[in-house]
């Protein structure tokens, strides 16, 4: 067994003329969550599909659980679970039937499959809906059933491709808790997401991909440090002092602060600035309601790395999304 | 939620054994049949539509075609059985395309199961449905006066011939399912191709008398005509062998063309 649960080197994938991946390398240690972060069309789904043995890379090499995803695909399939962007549940079957089917396909006896289905339906809060066809489920329930389906075989390695896209905040938080529960049990998770907060919340390590390439990797904190950033935020007790605060902060930081709802914030690189700001505000007799020094958000990190925000979907990304969808349609 | 950590290191197999492949196929066939329970539309397709066709054709067209309902039944029952089998074959493609577009196929492909099982399971389930529809048609026919004049062996032969032809022919719908991006387009094809194909045959007529020569030639050489004539022979009596052989040869030719095309289209899609 390779020491890494997931290891990919130089994965490339072309769909006709379109290059979806041009050299993606990543590793995930057993029992950790690897977040693959990137905007639409960056190559997240293509990467996941290669690692889950649904498609073969045009070039490059990858192992999952120590097995080659091309030459030993059958072994890989026995170790992994996959939850895709589009919930892979049979809408005509009930929740129970869906899980029974997977259990039977995995070689479980009828009794074992039944017990496992009941256990998972219970865990994912679907007991009441167990006897209803999945087409009557809400989006959040379908995702939960899909996740349950990918856990029937107790996979050691789980691929979650944008598991929370389109979910409301409550369902999303619920799913996050489930992912945390799984890693506590030693499952390795590869999670793709467009949401920086999601990667920040769940991932031990983050790989940032953009246009089919890895543009950064490291822990969430390391990434934030890599692009240098901290943000100083000051809120005066009296909102009318905001302009005074703004002037003092601007003078010390040498940058133009932003003031939103009485909160003055400015990016800084020197942490020693904070005491200086406090002294000057004290001298000016401005009472401080709130003062903080925080690391940049991942959105700010992404902007620093790529020069565009995560919600920018330009024509090129659109084209890649189409190519990826086309590839995803089988 | 302690299962994953405590699970023993699984014994990994290196390939799917033939016995396991059969089990996977059976499970997926079960899945396709169980769907009927939750989808009343499919029950309509499988049972009510064939019954309606038999009654409408027999009572509306019968008297004009052969002078009476009873004398038209030996013509129309085998014809409707054949036409119904072609339409029902479209459901193979419809279901496959639904699985592809809804992501269910991705789920199957991520599992350690035989690669052929999703398709084989569907074909097996569709064959069961075909047999069910044919039995319904024969039963309704019997109730309104249709009588089988051959023996049980010939009837079993009729079932086998129809099911074999249906499986071979269903590759056309599999191919379309691989090429289109929504299941409804498979049905659309069913209508534009199968309506003319089944009506340009002897399915609903006794002879081609009065039909222009070129059209009569098309009708005589239509695979559906061969199937219908063989079915008539097996259910009522008359020549069977060369019609059956011709029907199966057509079916085989269709498979030889459309199976490789389907596999190629599937690989492209993946």
UniProtKB/TrEMBL annotation, chain A:
GO MF entry, a single one: ATP binding
Keywords: Antibiotic resistance, ATP-binding, Cell membrane, Membrane, Nucleotide-binding, Translocase, Transport
Main location: membrane
Subcellular location: Cell membrane
Key word Cell membrane present: yes
InterPro entries named among the record's database cross-references: AAA+_ATPase, ABC_transporter-like_ATP-bd, ABC_transporter-like_CS, ABC_transporter_ATP-binding, DrrA, DrrA1/2-like_C, P-loop_NTPase
Gene Ontology terms: cellular component: plasma membrane
Membrane topology note: Peripheral membrane protein
Domain ABC transporter: 6-236
Any one Gene Ontology BP term: response to antibiotic
Family membership noted in the UniProt record: Belongs to the ABC transporter superfamily. Drug exporter-1 (DrugE1) (TC 3.A.1.105) family.
Protein name per the record: ATP-binding cassette domain-containing protein
Organism phylogeny: Bacteria, Bacillati, Actinomycetota, Actinomycetes, Streptosporangiales
From TrEMBL, chain B:
Pfam family, one: ABC2_membrane
PROSITE patterns attached to this UniProt entry: ABC_TM2
Location in or out of the cell: Cell membrane; Membrane
Gene Ontology molecular function, alphabetical: ABC-type transporter activity
Domain ABC transmembrane type-2: 41-269
PANTHER family referenced in this protein's UniProt entry, alphabetically: NODULATION PROTEIN J
Membrane topology according to the record: Multi-pass membrane protein
GO biological process entries: response to antibiotic
InterPro entries: ABC2_TM, ABC2_TM_bact-type, ABC_2_transport, Nod_factor_ABC_transporter
Major localisation: membrane
Entry protein name: Transport permease protein
Transmembrane segments annotated in the record for this chain: 43-61, 73-96, 131-148, 154-176, 188-205, 240-263
Alphabetically ordered keywords of this record: Antibiotic resistance, Cell membrane, Membrane, Transmembrane, Transmembrane helix, Transport
């Amino acid at each position: 067994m390779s020491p890494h649960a997931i290891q990919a080197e130089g994965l490339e994938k072309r769909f006709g003329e379109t290059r979806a991946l041009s050299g993606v390398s990543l590793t995930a240690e057993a029992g950790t969550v690897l977040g693959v972060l990137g905007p639409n069309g960056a190559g997240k789904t293509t990467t996941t599909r290669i690692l889950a043995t649904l498609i073969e890379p045009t070039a490059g090499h990858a192992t999952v659980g120590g097995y080659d995803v091309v030459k030993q695909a059958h072994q890989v399939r026995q170790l992994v679970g996959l939850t895709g962007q589009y919930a892979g549940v049979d809408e005509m079957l009930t929740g129970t039937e869906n899980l029974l089917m997977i259990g039977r396909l995995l070689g479980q006896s009828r009794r074992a499959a039944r017990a496992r289905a009941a256990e998972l339906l219970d865990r994912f809060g679907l007991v009441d809906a167990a006897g209803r066809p999945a087409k009557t489920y809400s989006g959040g329930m379908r995702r939960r059933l899909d996740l349950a389906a990918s856990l029937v075989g107790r996979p050691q390695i789980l691929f979650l491709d944008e598991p929370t896209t389109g979910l409301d905040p409550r369902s999303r938080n619920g799913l996050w808790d489930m992912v945390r529960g799984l890693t506590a049990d030693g499952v390795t998770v590869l999670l793709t997401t467009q949401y920086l907060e999601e990667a920040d919340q769940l991932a031990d390590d983050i790989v940032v991909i953009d246009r089919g390439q890895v543009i950064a990797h490291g822990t969430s904190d390391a990434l934030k440090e890599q692009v240098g950033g901290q943000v100083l935020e000051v809120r005066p007790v009296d909102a009318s002092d905001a302009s005074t605060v703004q002037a003092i902060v601007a003078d010390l930081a040498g940058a133009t602060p932003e003031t939103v709802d009485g909160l003055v914030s400015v990016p800084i690189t020197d942490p020693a600035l904070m005491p200086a700001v406090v002294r000057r505000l004290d001298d000016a007799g401005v009472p401080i309601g709130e003062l903080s020094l925080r690391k940049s958000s991942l959105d700010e990190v992404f902007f620093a790395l790529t020069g565009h925000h995560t919600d920018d979907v330009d024509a090129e990304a659109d084209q890649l999304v189409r190519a990826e969808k086309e590839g995803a349609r089988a | 939620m302690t299962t994953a950590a405590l699970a023993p290191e699984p014994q990994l197999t290196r390939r799917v054994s033939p016995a396991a492949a059969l089990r996977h196929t059976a499970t997926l066939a079960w899945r396709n049949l169980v769907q009927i329970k939750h989808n009343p539309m499919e029950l309509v397709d499988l049972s009510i539509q064939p019954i309606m066709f038999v009654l409408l054709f027999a009572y509306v067209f019968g008297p004009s075609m052969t002078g009476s309902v009873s004398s038209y039944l030996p013509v129309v029952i085998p014809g409707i059985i054949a036409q119904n089998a072609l339409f029902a074959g479209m459901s193979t493609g419809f279901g496959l395309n639904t699985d592809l577009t809804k992501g269910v196929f991705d789920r199957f492909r991520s599992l350690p199961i035989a690669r052929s099982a999703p398709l084989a399971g569907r074909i097996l389930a569709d064959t069961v449905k075909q047999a069910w529809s044919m039995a319904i048609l024969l039963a309704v026919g019997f109730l309104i006066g249709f009588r089988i004049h051959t023996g049980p062996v010939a009837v079993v032969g009729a079932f086998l011939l129809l099911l074999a032809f249906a499986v071979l022919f269903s590759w056309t719908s599999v191919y379309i399912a691989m090429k289109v991006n929504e299941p409804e387009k498979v049905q659309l094809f069913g209508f534009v191709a199968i309506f003319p194909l089944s009506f340009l045959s002897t399915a609903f007529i006794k002879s081609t008398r009065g039909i222009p020569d070129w059209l009569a030639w098309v009708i005589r050489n239509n695979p559906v005509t061969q199937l219908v004539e063989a079915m008539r022979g097996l259910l009522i009596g008359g020549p069977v062998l060369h019609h059956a052989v011709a029907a199966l040869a057509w079916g085989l030719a269709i498979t030889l063309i459309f199976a490789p095309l389907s596999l190629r289209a599937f690989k492209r899609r993946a």
